[in-house]
Amino acid sequence: MTTAAMHIARTGLDAQNERMRVISNNLANVNTTGFKRDRAAFETLAYQTITASGQPSTAETKYATGLNLGTGVRIQGTARIETQGSLQSTGNSLDMALDGDGYFQVQMPGGQNGYTRAGNFARSPEGLLVTAEGYQVQPGISIPEGATSISVGADGTVSAVVPGQSQPAELGQIQVATFTNPAGLTPIGDNYLIETAGSGAPNVGVAGVDGRGRIRSGMLEGSNVNVVEELVDMIETQRAYEVNSKMISATDQMLQYVNQNL
Predict the structure, then answer these.
(1) Which of 21, 32, 46, 66 sits 20 to 30 Å CA-CA off 221?
(2) What is the three-state SS of 184-250?
(3) Is the entire prediction scored with pTM above 0.70?
(4) CA 231/CA 206 separation, integer angstroms
(5) What is the rounded distance in angstroms from the CA atom of residue 199 to the CA atom of residue 247?
């Protein structure tokens, strides 16, 4: 008797442990602005073909079915679920949410562009529109000192009443980036994603045009994590982990029986 069954069960333990990590991260970020939940996808490991289907069984017959033994499972990858989170009113005109597809652009340290759904922006001491970490929103928007009645239109146009004027002046326009494959963006933490070969190049343009989401000023997008659904997945993962553990225990008992009685 071999230990192949133990090895297969071990791959099951590893895969379920990684899935539990994904679920744990989803639940930990249930209140994170603009967070998108991840889903773990599984795939089988290589099969060992003992007898191939169609192989001659005798001089005159062939096997109708083959004998193929699997070697386990692994996590194929994690898919980010891009469904819309709920919009929550904040009353802060510099808070923005995207109602639809797309991402805000920010300039990361080193000049690289980052992409985020978290629109909790603020005004820097220099008057620039920045993220909580101080990264400048792209394209750059400068808000003059003493500006009042700041507003952001659904198309991203930023306006304010500046000193010496009675009518709102246009300060710039925030643009929205979309991707052919947004699931291909790589998360780097702090609510930021970066472009990869899998995501394709960004398609940057006016909010609300060509499938891009509209900007909602004074609102933030909540996470799209469904706590009940995650708890169900957690219980399912726990049960699968226990079954694989029992498989190792059962195989060990079988090996002990062989050693003691044969």
Answers:
(1) 21
(2) HCEEEECCEEECCCCCCCCEEEECCCCCECEEEECEEECCCCCHHHHHHHHHHHHHHHHHHHHHHHH
(3) yes
(4) 39
(5) 40
Taking alpha carbons only, the member of 225, 256, 235, 237 closest to residue 31 is 225
CA atoms within 13 A on the CB side of 98: 30
How high is the mean pLDDT in each 10-residue block of the chain (262 residues)?
Answer: 82 95 96 94 90 84 85 92 93 92 92 92 91 91 86 91 83 93 91 92 92 93 96 96 92 86 79
Residue corresponding to tokens 């792209």: 138
Contact 50, 68 (CB under 8 A): yes
3-state class (DSSP) for residue 64: coil
Dihedral of alpha carbons 161, 166, 168, 171, sign: negative
Tell me: cis bond preceding 56? Omega within 30 of 0 counts. Answer: no
Q: How far is CA 119 from CA 3, 10, 218, in A?
A: 53, 43, 10
- Find all residues with CB under 8 Å of 89, minimum gap 6, and list them: 218, 219
Angle in degrees, CA 208, 86, 21, rounded to 5? 115
Collapsed DSSP state (helix, strand, coil) of residue 2: coil
